[in-house]
Amino acid sequence: MSDIDVRQEGRVTVFTINRPEKLNAISSGVAVDLQKAFEEFDASDQRVAVLCGAGEKAFTSGADVTDLPELWRCVPAVGIRTNKPIICAVDGWCVGGGLVMAATSDLCVATERAKFSYPEAKLGLTGGIIAALAARIPHKMAMEVMLLGRPVSGRRAYEMGLVNEIAPEGKHVEVALGMAQELAGMAPLVLGTLKAMVNDHMLVKSPSEQMALTQAALNTVRNSADLQEGLAAYREKRSPNFTGK
């Protein structure tokens, strides 16, 4: 996972998209590796995650157009499935899919100089998953971000309700870690229950979110040991021994 750095700070795990020379653009490999890293986090005893980008220029510039990812894989509550809290720490540009990741994280810290941008209407293409924004901030503000495509400062994002706290320049990860350590000292069962209630019952899922969730479920079946066992049993003309894995 050379483009994803994972480190532990006590009971907090910090995930860093480490492609500063590409403004931390999300390639196909980054999306897969980030999803796998979060699966390991979810199965561990770690309690809170912080998600950030390397360097000061960008959290992420969005999808790498030279190596297009299945972006849903690294979107919290879609490809990243955990009831543990996820805090997004943003400095510099947060573009396209990066804005979706920030919006679908449970909490978000940003600097004043952070710039949130969703320019797809100017490019003529969208995956539609940005519609999730309208379930998380006021309708007119979500439409401003999606339709006008104007860059939104960290301060403006805070006023919109996209960001929880403004951090001093270069201190976004430090502030997010402080928030994460506070959460790590709380009852994980309560945090997980509340997060599940909100994500499963209070937030309306867009068609693209529902499609991505379905794709994730089908991928689990396609990549399962049971499928390989079933195919082998068919070839060998025997009864399969399924394990549910």
TrEMBL record:
Gene3D superfamilies per record: 2-enoyl-CoA Hydratase, Chain A, domain 1 (3.90.226.10)
GO BP annotations, alphabetical order: fatty acid beta-oxidation
InterPro entries linked: ClpP/crotonase-like_dom_sf (IPR029045), Enoyl-CoA_hydra/iso (IPR001753)
TM annotation in the entry: none
Pfam name, any one: ECH_1
Alphabetized GO MF terms: catalytic activity
Protein name: Enoyl-CoA hydratase
